[in-house]
Design goal:
With 364 residues, the protein is an alpha/beta fold. It has ten helices and twelve strands.
Length: 364
């Protein structure tokens, strides 16, 4: 088992000696830093499991240093115990509000110090075990998804070969199998993208994209299906819009495809589905997909973007509850926002708000 590492930050070396003596009967590795300005640069070297942080220090005091540590994602889970001579409730509240997990008062009591250190290290140990479990789950998901994709590719290729050798009635059945397999392939791709987005391992391939052209391309794919239900796909693009925005076109296409697919599924026959694009004074691009379907109940308008959450069950309509979760992750990866609201008197409005960045200037 790895020996826990405790980082002691105090401008008085004597205080380090006191703490190390009081904890001498424990199996810990101690590191001491007497200058608060050196702490941030030393974290990656020391790799502490617990930080004992003095409050009253010259220069950057313990509370400010605690805030700086908590602002670094890699160290947000490391417990910080403030060591302070302050006893006022306001002072202790400041420590906790700065991101500290615990505090202990000076002069130090050995029994209390050992108990609080053991408590914080126990929390850190539980966090590390959870992270290990999550990493294992993530690795398993990636492995399973890749294996499923490979097997499914074999199925699709097999169906394509069979279609060339059978009669028309059998070919129709094979086409249904092929469509189902393609739907499963999309679901597997969604699972993979969600896993990558959750782990932070997906990189956006940003480039300048004509957003109106991208939306029109998505709409063109649904014209046949919409015509079968006698639905009208209507585009309303603002004339003042700066068309090019910096996005990952493939991922954003997936978002728009999902929203329009839902609109076509849930909107009634003989209805209009409107796609609007506009911009505002805050240099944001606003995309709306508007339908007159059953809508989303107000109590579900926040939950609808969670994985496996389904708004309204519809007969004969496949609903897994992954599509909108993926949409939210992709939009947030673009520093954007996505909402759903009611379309009075009936229907839903899905709204995407994206930052409108300046076009990339080509250099020779």
């Amino acid at each position: 088992m790895t020996v826990p590492t405790i980082l002691i930050v105090d401008d008085e070396p004597d205080n380090f000696d006191v703490i190390s003596i009081l904890l001498s009967n424990q199996d810990y590795e101690f590191h001491y830093i007497g200058n608060s300005q050196e702490v941030i640069a030393s974290l990656d070297i020391v790799q502490p499991d617990l930080i004992l942080l003095d409050v009253m220090m010259p220069g950057i005091n313990g509370i400010e240093l605690c805030k700086q540590i908590r602002a670094i994602p890699a160290w947000q889970a490391v417990p910080i115990t403030m060591v302070t001579a302050l006893t006022g409730k306001d002072d202790l509240a400041c420590c906790l509000n700065a991101g500290a997990d615990d505090f202990i008062s000076k002069p130090l009591n050995g029994l209390e110090l050992r108990a609080r250190v053991n408590s914080m290290l126990r929390i850190k140990h539980q966090h590390d075990n959870l992270q290990t479990l999550l990493q294992f789950r993530e690795d398993m998901v990636h492995m399973l998804v890749h294996d499923l994709r490979n097997r499914l590719t074999d199925v699709l290729l097999g169906v394509e070969f069979l279609e060339m050798e059978v009669n028309s009635s059998m070919r129709q059945r094979l086409e249904k199998i092929y469509e189902s397999a393609q739907g499963l392939q999309l679901l597997i791709d969604d699972l993979l993208k969600i896993a990558l987005l959750e782990s932070g391992n997906i990189r956006l391939n940003r480039r300048n994209v004509d957003i109106c052209q991208l939306v029109q391309s998505v709409m063109d794919n649904f014209k046949t299906i919409a015509t079968q239900k006698n639905q009208s796909l209507i585009s309303q693009f603002s004339s003042t819009l700066t068309n090019e925005i910096l996005i990952d076109a493939t991922l954003m296409y997936r978002v728009l495809d999902n929203l329009l697919s839902n609109a076509v599924k849930f909107a009634p026959a003989d209805s209009d589905i409107i796609i609007k694009i506009d911009s505002n004074q805050a240099e944001k691009v606003i995309i709306q997909v508007i339908d007159s379907g059953p809508g989303v109940p107000e109590k579900l308008q926040q939950k609808i973007f969670e994985k496996y959450e389904i708004g309204t069950l519809m007969p004969n309509v496949s609903q897994i509850g992954l599509g909108l979760a993926l949409c939210k992750m992709i939009v947030q990866a673009h520093q954007g926002e996505i909402y759903v609201k009611s379309n009075k008197p009936q229907g839903a409005i899905f709204e995407i708000i994206l930052p409108q960045t300046l076009p990339i200037v080509a250099t020779s």
